[in-house]
Amino acid sequence: TDIVVLISGSGSNLQALIDTQAETNTRIVAVISNKPEAYGLIRAAQAGIPAVILEHGQYESREAFDQALMQEIDSYNPALVVLAGFMRILTPAFTDHYHGRMLNIHPSLLPKFKGLHTHRRALEAGEQEHGVTVHFVTSELDGGAPVIQARIPVLEDDSEESLQKRVLVQEHIIYPVAVGWFANGRLTLQDGRACLDSTL
Ligand code: GRF
Q1: Where, by residue number, does (6R)-10-formyltetrahydrofolate bind (predicted)?
Q2: For the domain that residue 77 is a member of, what is the CATH number?
Protein backbone atom coordinates (compact mmCIF):
# COMPACT_ATOMS: atom_id res chain seq x y z
CA THR A 1 0.00 0.00 0.00
CA ASP A 2 1.47 3.30 -1.09
CA ILE A 3 1.46 6.13 1.42
CA VAL A 4 2.58 9.76 1.43
CA VAL A 5 3.80 11.24 4.73
CA LEU A 6 3.55 14.97 5.51
CA ILE A 7 5.94 16.49 8.05
CA SER A 8 7.12 19.84 9.40
CA GLY A 9 9.87 18.86 11.78
CA SER A 10 12.03 16.18 13.33
CA GLY A 11 10.16 13.30 11.75
CA SER A 12 10.62 10.74 14.49
CA ASN A 13 7.17 9.35 13.68
CA LEU A 14 8.18 9.28 10.03
CA GLN A 15 11.21 7.23 11.07
CA ALA A 16 8.98 4.75 12.91
CA LEU A 17 6.89 4.41 9.74
CA ILE A 18 9.99 4.00 7.56
CA ASP A 19 11.30 1.27 9.86
CA THR A 20 8.02 -0.68 9.87
CA GLN A 21 7.16 -0.63 6.16
CA ALA A 22 7.71 -4.37 5.79
CA GLU A 23 5.53 -5.28 8.78
CA THR A 24 2.75 -2.87 7.88
CA ASN A 25 2.77 -3.83 4.23
CA THR A 26 3.32 -0.21 3.17
CA ARG A 27 5.65 1.71 0.92
CA ILE A 28 6.30 5.38 1.63
CA VAL A 29 6.34 6.83 -1.88
CA ALA A 30 7.02 10.44 -0.87
CA VAL A 31 7.66 12.66 2.13
CA ILE A 32 6.48 16.26 1.84
CA SER A 33 7.50 19.05 4.21
CA ASN A 34 6.27 22.63 4.39
CA LYS A 35 9.54 23.53 6.16
CA PRO A 36 12.83 23.30 4.24
CA GLU A 37 14.82 22.76 7.45
CA ALA A 38 12.76 19.79 8.68
CA TYR A 39 15.09 17.01 9.82
CA GLY A 40 12.58 14.47 8.55
CA LEU A 41 13.64 15.36 4.99
CA ILE A 42 17.09 13.96 5.78
CA ARG A 43 15.52 10.81 7.20
CA ALA A 44 13.57 10.39 3.97
CA ALA A 45 16.64 10.93 1.80
CA GLN A 46 18.61 8.43 3.89
CA ALA A 47 15.88 5.87 3.28
CA GLY A 48 15.88 6.58 -0.46
CA ILE A 49 12.41 8.13 -0.38
CA PRO A 50 11.62 11.17 -2.55
CA ALA A 51 11.61 14.23 -0.27
CA VAL A 52 9.66 17.25 -1.43
CA ILE A 53 9.59 20.78 0.01
CA LEU A 54 6.46 22.85 -0.47
CA GLU A 55 6.83 26.13 1.41
CA HIS A 56 3.49 27.52 2.46
CA GLY A 57 4.97 31.06 2.49
CA GLN A 58 5.36 30.87 -1.28
CA TYR A 59 1.60 30.74 -1.80
CA GLU A 60 -0.73 33.67 -1.59
CA SER A 61 -3.43 31.94 0.43
CA ARG A 62 -4.12 28.85 2.49
CA GLU A 63 -6.38 27.63 -0.33
CA ALA A 64 -3.63 28.02 -2.94
CA PHE A 65 -1.13 26.15 -0.77
CA ASP A 66 -3.58 23.33 -0.10
CA GLN A 67 -4.35 23.01 -3.82
CA ALA A 68 -0.65 22.74 -4.65
CA LEU A 69 -0.16 20.24 -1.83
CA MET A 70 -3.07 18.16 -3.07
CA GLN A 71 -1.65 18.11 -6.59
CA GLU A 72 1.76 17.05 -5.33
CA ILE A 73 0.32 14.28 -3.15
CA ASP A 74 -1.99 12.99 -5.88
CA SER A 75 0.89 12.77 -8.36
CA TYR A 76 2.07 9.83 -6.21
CA ASN A 77 -1.41 8.30 -6.15
CA PRO A 78 -1.23 7.08 -2.52
CA ALA A 79 -3.95 5.03 -0.86
CA LEU A 80 -3.31 6.84 2.43
CA VAL A 81 -1.99 10.24 3.52
CA VAL A 82 -0.26 10.26 6.89
CA LEU A 83 0.25 13.49 8.84
CA ALA A 84 3.28 13.08 11.10
CA GLY A 85 3.95 16.34 12.89
CA PHE A 86 2.59 18.38 9.99
CA MET A 87 1.95 21.74 11.62
CA ARG A 88 -0.54 23.34 9.25
CA ILE A 89 -4.26 23.80 9.57
CA LEU A 90 -5.87 22.30 6.48
CA THR A 91 -8.80 23.72 4.50
CA PRO A 92 -12.07 21.78 4.20
CA ALA A 93 -11.38 21.33 0.45
CA PHE A 94 -8.23 19.45 1.43
CA THR A 95 -9.68 17.38 4.26
CA ASP A 96 -12.77 16.50 2.18
CA HIS A 97 -10.58 15.35 -0.71
CA TYR A 98 -8.82 12.82 1.58
CA HIS A 99 -11.91 11.88 3.58
CA GLY A 100 -11.44 8.40 5.04
CA ARG A 101 -7.88 8.12 3.75
CA MET A 102 -5.89 10.54 5.90
CA LEU A 103 -4.61 9.93 9.43
CA ASN A 104 -3.06 12.26 12.03
CA ILE A 105 -1.34 11.67 15.34
CA HIS A 106 -2.08 14.08 18.16
CA PRO A 107 -0.25 14.03 21.51
CA SER A 108 -3.21 14.00 23.88
CA LEU A 109 -6.05 11.75 24.90
CA LEU A 110 -8.54 13.32 22.49
CA PRO A 111 -11.09 14.86 22.85
CA LYS A 112 -8.96 16.42 25.59
CA PHE A 113 -6.40 19.09 24.64
CA LYS A 114 -6.91 19.74 20.96
CA GLY A 115 -4.38 22.14 19.45
CA LEU A 116 -0.92 23.08 20.69
CA HIS A 117 1.09 22.65 23.92
CA THR A 118 -0.78 19.56 24.97
CA HIS A 119 1.81 18.33 27.49
CA ARG A 120 1.98 21.66 29.32
CA ARG A 121 -1.80 21.89 29.38
CA ALA A 122 -2.19 18.34 30.70
CA LEU A 123 0.24 19.16 33.53
CA GLU A 124 -1.49 22.45 34.33
CA ALA A 125 -4.85 20.71 34.43
CA GLY A 126 -3.49 18.21 36.98
CA GLU A 127 -4.27 15.23 34.76
CA GLN A 128 -3.28 11.86 36.18
CA GLU A 129 -3.15 10.32 32.74
CA HIS A 130 -1.97 11.61 29.42
CA GLY A 131 -1.25 10.07 26.06
CA VAL A 132 -1.64 10.13 22.32
CA THR A 133 -4.36 9.54 19.75
CA VAL A 134 -4.29 8.49 16.10
CA HIS A 135 -7.40 9.75 14.32
CA PHE A 136 -8.92 10.17 10.89
CA VAL A 137 -8.64 13.76 9.71
CA THR A 138 -11.75 15.85 9.15
CA SER A 139 -12.19 19.60 8.76
CA GLU A 140 -12.49 19.96 12.55
CA LEU A 141 -8.98 20.44 13.99
CA ASP A 142 -7.99 17.30 15.92
CA GLY A 143 -11.67 16.37 15.83
CA GLY A 144 -11.90 13.36 13.49
CA ALA A 145 -12.77 9.82 14.53
CA PRO A 146 -10.23 8.32 16.94
CA VAL A 147 -8.58 5.07 15.83
CA ILE A 148 -6.21 4.09 18.63
CA GLN A 149 -4.89 5.67 21.83
CA ALA A 150 -1.98 4.99 24.14
CA ARG A 151 -2.17 6.24 27.72
CA ILE A 152 0.56 6.81 30.26
CA PRO A 153 0.46 7.92 33.89
CA VAL A 154 1.54 11.47 34.69
CA LEU A 155 4.30 11.24 37.28
CA GLU A 156 4.67 13.59 40.23
CA ASP A 157 7.91 15.13 39.02
CA ASP A 158 7.01 15.22 35.34
CA SER A 159 7.99 18.27 33.30
CA GLU A 160 6.61 19.19 29.91
CA GLU A 161 9.75 17.65 28.38
CA SER A 162 9.73 14.38 30.33
CA LEU A 163 6.05 13.89 29.57
CA GLN A 164 6.58 14.65 25.89
CA LYS A 165 9.41 12.11 25.71
CA ARG A 166 7.34 9.30 27.22
CA VAL A 167 4.38 10.11 24.99
CA LEU A 168 6.62 10.11 21.91
CA VAL A 169 7.76 6.55 22.68
CA GLN A 170 4.10 5.54 22.56
CA GLU A 171 3.53 7.46 19.32
CA HIS A 172 6.19 5.40 17.60
CA ILE A 173 4.39 2.23 18.67
CA ILE A 174 0.78 3.08 17.83
CA TYR A 175 1.21 4.97 14.57
CA PRO A 176 2.61 1.98 12.66
CA VAL A 177 -0.17 -0.15 14.15
CA ALA A 178 -2.89 2.15 12.82
CA VAL A 179 -1.20 2.55 9.44
CA GLY A 180 -0.82 -1.23 9.19
CA TRP A 181 -4.52 -1.73 9.93
CA PHE A 182 -5.42 0.69 7.16
CA ALA A 183 -2.97 -0.85 4.70
CA ASN A 184 -4.38 -4.29 5.33
CA GLY A 185 -7.94 -3.15 4.75
CA ARG A 186 -9.03 -3.57 8.35
CA LEU A 187 -9.49 0.10 9.18
CA THR A 188 -12.15 2.22 7.52
CA LEU A 189 -14.10 5.38 8.29
CA GLN A 190 -17.82 4.64 8.27
CA ASP A 191 -20.49 7.21 9.16
CA GLY A 192 -17.89 9.31 10.93
CA ARG A 193 -16.56 6.44 13.03
CA ALA A 194 -13.42 4.38 12.78
CA CYS A 195 -14.27 0.73 12.10
CA LEU A 196 -11.80 -2.05 12.75
CA ASP A 197 -12.59 -5.36 11.05
CA SER A 198 -11.57 -8.12 13.43
CA THR A 199 -12.34 -10.92 11.00
CA LEU A 200 -9.35 -10.12 8.78
C1 GRF B 1 4.48 14.58 17.66
O2 GRF B 1 4.38 14.85 19.01
C3 GRF B 1 3.12 14.47 17.05
O4 GRF B 1 2.20 13.86 17.88
C5 GRF B 1 2.77 15.91 16.87
O6 GRF B 1 3.96 16.51 16.41
C7 GRF B 1 5.07 15.76 16.90
C8 GRF B 1 5.88 15.32 15.73
O9 GRF B 1 7.08 14.71 16.11
N10 GRF B 1 1.62 16.07 16.01
P11 GRF B 1 8.00 14.05 15.01
O12 GRF B 1 8.26 15.12 13.93
O13 GRF B 1 7.30 12.86 14.45
O14 GRF B 1 9.27 13.69 15.71
Answers
A1: 62, 87-90, 104
A2: 3.40.50.170
Confirm whether 106 is a catalytic residue: yes
Q: What tens digit of pLDDT does each residue of 25-62 get?
A: 999 999 999 999 999 999 999 999 999 999 999 999 99
pLDDT band at 199 (very low <50, low <70, confident <90, very high): confident
Per the structure, the complete domain to which residue 127 belongs is given by 2-188
Instruction: Single out the catalytic residue among 56, 97, 99, 106.
Output: 106
Contacts of 84 (CB under 8 A, 6+ apart): 5, 6, 7, 11, 13, 14, 17, 40, 105, 175
- ipTM value of the model? 0.96
Cβ–ligand 1 distance for 107 under 6 Å, the answer yes
Q: Report the nearest-CA residue for atom 6 of ligand 1.
A: 85
pLDDT of residue 80: 99
State pTM to two decimals.
Answer: 0.97
Q: How many structural domains comprise the chain?
A: 1
- Helix 12-19 with 39-46: angle, nearest 10 deg: 20
